[in-house]
């Protein structure tokens, strides 16, 4: 059996990683590789960076953790910087690799890159095999074909909960046979053209990248504090670390597996009993799956102004001053402003906050929703393309919401979820 490459992308973990497990089973030697693609640190058509400092820092921490875990198994992570369709073939030639194992992509740009890499490797006799490693339900286990996936979430949920099962996780490898891999040197934020971070003590919690931290957070939330027992009641909170799981950053970078979260929840239920909160955690994971499957079904339509509905809504290109006032938390709507300041200063915002600021952007300011989604892409530490663009299209009324538009009243929302102004006072203090 030949030497093979495992191309890590947003699956930066050893547990429940089918690409890694299959590579070990079918190869003599494994070369784990991560390519830092400069295109991911460039600017989008909307004038924002694709990756800002918060997510870049989380990525670098995740890579350092992955490398440390691999070295504990007598392997290591080869980190290269450049264009993947050039760097992966170069690494394959260097190690005489005949196969590359990788995560399967669904979004337009990533799928095109995957195809370019496969074509370049094929020219030198190296093939690519991809695996679905990101979702709770495996695409092959869905009770309908890809084109037949319902465009209404409730219809999807009811059928999938009744007719589909969730696979067990793949165990973390006990050993990995690799050639000698030199010490890994990671770039700094300035190396990537980004500004170093200054932590803000008001943030909900310090987010540190890596599988080690992700698994610790999983254990803390489910078994340490048992906060999961009241998740449904507290999930719309705004201040503090445990009003919600905060798993999203580790899920987005692939430091945590959605199936691992599911099976830990089931373990908790077996020991303590199930309730509406434990179900709601799985329900939210299912939403995450749904947006990914919608991206597979509709492809680049979720990036168009009309979304998947082909509406005739005319979105206004943002006036730069109006856009900047939204970004800087200077709209004059205190609930909107507090949330936007939290995002700007920490890279995180609650789910309640995201729905409100997106609704305000689309329905009060009446601006092209894609600019808001693109700003979130730059800023969010837990950015996931399918969930981000799917949620923004949903709020804008051009996505999967069966209603025409989902508009929130920020004054009422502030009264309902921040009645004592604890959150607004925290972020709007002079």
From TrEMBL:
Cofactor notes: Binds 1 5,10-methenyltetrahydrofolate (MTHF) per subunit. Binds 1 FAD per subunit.
Native source organism of the sequence: Flavobacterium litorale
Alphabetical keyword list: Chromophore, FAD, Flavoprotein
Protein task: May have a photoreceptor function.
Entry-linked PROSITE patterns: PHR_CRY_ALPHA_BETA (PS51645)
Name of this chain's protein: Cryptochrome DASH
Cofactors (names): (6R)-5,10-methylene-5,6,7,8-tetrahydrofolate; FAD
Pfam families per record: DNA_photolyase, FAD_binding_7
């Amino acid at each position: 059996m030949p030497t093979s490459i495992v191309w890590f992308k947003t699956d930066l973990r050893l547990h429940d990683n089918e690409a890694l497990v299959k590579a070990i089973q079918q190869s003599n030697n494994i070369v784990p590789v991560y390519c830092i693609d400069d295109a991911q640190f460039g600017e989008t058509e909307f004038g924002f960076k694709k990756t800002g400092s918060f997510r870049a820092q989380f990525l670098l921490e995740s890579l350092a953790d992955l490398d440390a875990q691999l070295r504990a198994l007598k392997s290591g992570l080869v980190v290269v910087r450049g264009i993947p369709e050039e760097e992966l073939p170069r690494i394959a030639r260097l190690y005489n690799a005949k196969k590359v194992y990788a995560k399967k992509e669904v979004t337009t740009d990533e799928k095109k890159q995957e195809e370019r890499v496969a074509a370049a490797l094929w020219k030198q006799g190296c093939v690519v095999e991809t695996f679905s490693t990101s979702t709770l339900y495996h695409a092959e286990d869905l009770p309908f074909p890809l084109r037949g996936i319902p465009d209404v979430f409730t219809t999807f949920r009811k059928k999938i909960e009744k007719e589909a099962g969730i696979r067990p996780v793949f165990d973390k490898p006990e050993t990995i046979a690799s050639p000698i891999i030199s010490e890994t040197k990671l770039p700094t934020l300035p190396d990537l053209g980004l500004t170093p971070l200054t932590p803000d003590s008001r943030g909900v919690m310090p987010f540190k990248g890596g599988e080690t931290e992700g698994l610790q957070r999983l254990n803390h939330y489910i078994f340490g504090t048992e906060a999961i027992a009241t998740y449904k009641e507290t999930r719309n909170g705004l201040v503090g670390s445990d009003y919600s799981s905060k798993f999203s950053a580790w899920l987005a970078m692939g430091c945590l597996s959605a199936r691992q979260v599911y099976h830990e929840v089931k373990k908790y239920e077996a020991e303590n009993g199930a309730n509406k909160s434990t179900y709601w955690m799985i329900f939210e994971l299912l939403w995450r799956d749904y947006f990914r499957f919608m991206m597979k079904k509709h492809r680049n339509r979720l990036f168009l102004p009309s979304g998947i509905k082909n509406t005739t809504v005319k979105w206004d290109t943002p006036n730069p001053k109006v856009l900047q006032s939204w970004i800087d938390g200077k709209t004059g709507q205190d609930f909107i402003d507090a949330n936007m300041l939290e995002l700007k200063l920490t890279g995180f915002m609650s789910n309640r906050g995201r729905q409100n600021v997106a609704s305000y952007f689309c329905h009060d300011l009446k601006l092209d929703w894609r600019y808001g989604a693109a700003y979130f892409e730059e800023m969010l530490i837990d950015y996931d393309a399918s969930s981000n663009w799917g949620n923004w299209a949903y709020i804008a009324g051009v996505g999967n919401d069966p209603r025409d538009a989902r508009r929130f009243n920020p004054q009422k929302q502030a009264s309902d979820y921040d009645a004592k102004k604890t959150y607004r006072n925290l972020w709007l203090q002079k």
